[in-house]
Amino acid sequence: MSANILFCSRNDIVKRTPLGGNVDPDKVIPFVKTAQDKYLLIALGTVLYDYLQDQIAAGTLTGVYKTLVDEYIIDTLVHYSMVEALPFLAYSIGNTGITKNLNSEQGASPSKNDIDYLLQKELSTAQFYSERLVNYLIAQNTLYPQYLQTTGFSDNVYPDKGQQYRNGWVI
Asked: pTM score, two decimals?
């Protein structure tokens, strides 16, 4: 699987989602990694995913690859990160076990229905950006030769190009 190189930062999540800036980054960053592995790897495929991680790690991300990350990948990733984080943000896991964060003086804990609604909204937004990313990669595949390459290894993940034809059967 991937190294611990993240395609976005905590600041990207705060700027592009409703997540407040006072949320402890340690509560959010693990969900970025999870979202990358669960959703982004599927959209990019192993070869392009690993290539981008290597470029980010080396500090050499430029040109069309920087455009891909800045304009397509980050939006997809921050919303999938929120999808992964939302169910857990109201809880703390520590030495004493799992505790629910108490209400503040100015607010009340949301109901499960409220959280489910927010989760569905974030999922819908994440899927929109993911489809936009995949459509861009398909349309611009000559700019990103790694998108259609394979490594030949059995653990290789091939990019999920989505469903390009949405019309039903015509008889």
From this structure: 0.82
